[in-house]
Predict the 3D structure of the following.
Amino acid sequence: MAAASAPKVVERKAGGGRLLELQGVSKTFSNGTVALENLNLAVERHEFLSLLGPSGCGKSTALRIIAGLGSVSGGRLFWPEGGHVGDIGFVFQEPTLMPWATVFDNVQLPFKLQGKGRRQTRERVEEALAMVGLQDFHEAYPRELSGGMKMRVSIARALVTKPKLLLMDEPFAALDEITRIRLNNDLLRLWEGQGWTVIFVTHSVYESVFLSSRIVVMAARPGRIVGEIGIDAPYPRDEAFRMSEPYNAYCREASAALHLAMGDT
């Protein structure tokens, strides 16, 4: 088996609105587990793309490779406009906040790691907190926040550097349904207003249909793409869309594709 290597980044002239391409990407762990095999995926600028699939299908592995947090065993990553880690924000499944630090200091962390001080970055941190509705919680500590508020802090921390690409690894999975719906609504509002590209990992058919412009369905062992669904519904989306027949039809289609993927494992 070939030794793992860092993702190969090839710069190309921009064209066709494409932000990122994964071409033939494979990942085999040291224990022999094939997490990804021949993964081909093109990501367009400003799209909201969801990776939907069962546990173990390589969704999170793909996300970590895109973020530069994991190596590949084969294949390449292409950034047509040139890409680097500074253009990427990552929101993990858990908020991963520093319990001893205030909300402000948690959000300011990416700048601190760059050697920038509070005074120099205060405006950017305050802007990010305002975007997620936490402008009045600068000096609060994580223990004083609800689960949904902690996740908002995590999102603000990912956004504070103004990334081109936002990677989200099941960020709302542990939240109650009401909070999850509220954060879905807020995330779409931010995405529409800021014009990022989002790659969103989820197990939820309903969440993927509500949020996405495109859903990529993955199956496990080995991790691979087995289907793709374009969600041809206008933004903004709200409760009326959740209650509509097109939404229900897309949910049925995505559910059928997910069950097929699970049957393939």
Notes: The chain has eight helices and ten strands. The first strand starts at residue 9 and ends at 11. Helices lie at 59-66, 103-113, 118-131, 147-159, 177-194, 205-211, 239-242, 245-264.
